[in-house]
Design goal:
120 residues; single chain; 3-stranded mixed sheet; alpha+beta
């Protein structure tokens, strides 16, 4: 029964964080941040959000910016879900590189060299 509740909370946080990041990235054309998954601890005190960032070359830079603004993101999230959750969990953000991993596997299966992005 507990996992059903956790799944609902994870879906709620994923949806609301997605809306928050969508509004923030409207000011940055050519950049897209989506929340691919949210995992909440059993005591609802910590939430790990996995972000998919396009273009992936800007991933580390945007993740650092997100880390510096975690408190304001948590506040915005709290304003959006205050009627559904009593306590807003602490947020941790990570880059979800599963798409890059899939692209690399696809390139290996097609026997093509993987595309490498050059760091500027």
């Amino acid at each position: 029964m507990e996992t059903k509740r956790l799944n609902k909370i994870e879906r709620l946080l994923q949806k609301e964080l997605g809306v928050i990041f969508q509004r923030q990235t409207q000011a940055m054309p050519g950049t897209l941040i989506s929340v691919s998954a949210v995992r909440v601890s059993a005591d609802l005190s910590v939430a790990k959000a996995y972000l998919s960032i396009f273009p992936s070359a800007k991933g580390k830079e945007l993740l650092e910016t997100i880390h510096t603004h975690t408190r304001s993101i948590r506040y915005d999230l709290g304003q959006r879900v205050r009627l559904q959750l009593r306590k807003i969990p602490e947020l941790s953000f990570f880059i979800d590189d599963s798409l890059d991993y899939l692209e690399n596997i696809d390139a290996l299966l097609n026997l093509q060299p993987p595309k490498r992005e050059e760091a500027d």
